[in-house]
Amino acid sequence: MQFAPVLHAEWLKIRTVRSLPGALFALFAVTTAFSAIAGVDGASDPELDPLFTALSGVTLGQIAAISFGAMAVSAEYHDGALRLSLAAVPRRGRWFAAKATAIAVPVLAVSLPTSLAALLAARAGLGPAASGLTPAEQVRGVVGCGLYLTLMALFAAGLATLLRSGVATLSVLIPFILVVSFVIGDAVGTVTDFLPDRAGQVVLHETHDGTLGPWPGLAVTALWTAAALLAGAWSLRRRDA
Fold first, then answer.
1. pLDDT at position 180, please?
2. pTM of the entire structure?
3. Exposed (0-12), middle (13-18) or buried (19+): which is 20, by Cβ within 10 Å?
4. pLDDT under 50 in the chain at which residues?
5. Which of 1, 117, 181, 194 would bridge with 185, disulfide CB 3.0–4.6 Å?
6. Which residues have CB under 8 Å from 241's CB, separation 6+?
7. What's the 3-state SS for the chain?
8. CA–CA separation, 25 and 240 (whole Å)
9. Radius of gyration of the chain from Cα atoms?
10. Considering only CA atoms, which of 34, 209, 47, 195 is closest in space to residue 115?
């Protein structure tokens, strides 16, 4: 079977799993709402990073992106769905590539306008505090935010394929990004600059003092994502459906 019909079939699956469009809606709503709140709260802080404040809703919004990636894969492990998928597409690598593409495209399509809406909503609250942001910085923040959310969704998809469970994936990733990186990470040192979430979020900052710059940081996240997808593909090829 050619790639295009496999991709179309995987896209139809995503459209028909009720929780997945809900996750994309949550991605938009949570990211935009919390960025708007951050803009109002941070307007009087003279030391704030206006770009990161404007896009800070992604800290919680990424949970929806991660959930989307994990649930899109874990649905295959319910009621023998994966066996049916692989019976229709015996070439497991092709099927997995189609699944990853069907996850990445809608997440990116939602993440880019979400990032723009979050930036505009937060700028309204920040007022003059955001006046120093250049157009190039704002474009970099919006595009980088969309790419970061897409990479995190794919990272979760790869891990869910390896663990064969959406619940296990979320149980690992959500505490990791909310606790390990931000609570423990500051005490560990520069090693945490290379964690997938910390590295990728550098692109959301106007200024950066760490080891990585905006695009190198996003590249580190892409390497983590590639490793997770390769591990998932290896597991899919080696284990029974």
1. 72
2. 0.93
3. buried
4. none
5. 181
6. 80, 82, 83, 86
7. CCHHHHHHHHHHHHHHCCHHHHHHHHHHHHHHHHHHHHHHHHCCCCCCCHHHHHCCCHHHHHHHHHHHHHHHHHHHHCCCHHHHHHHHCCCHHHHHHHHHHHHHHHHHHHHHHHHHHHHHHHHHHHHHHHCCCCHHHHHHHHHHHHHHHHHHHHHHHHHHHHHCCHHHHHHHHHHHHHHHHHHHHHHHCHHHHHCHHHHHHHHHCCCCCCCCCHHHHHHHHHHHHHHHHHHHHHHHHHCCC
8. 34
9. 18
10. 34
Q: Look at the chain and count its residues.
A: 241
Amino acid at position 185, single letter: G
pLDDT at 194: 87
Which pLDDT score is estimated for 142?
Answer: 95
**Alpha-carbon span 202 to 49, nearest angstrom:** 12
Tokens, residue 241: 């459906």
pLDDT of residue 88: 79
Both tokens assigned to 210: 């760490």
Identify the pLDDT of residue 240.
Answer: 63
pLDDT at res. 85: 81
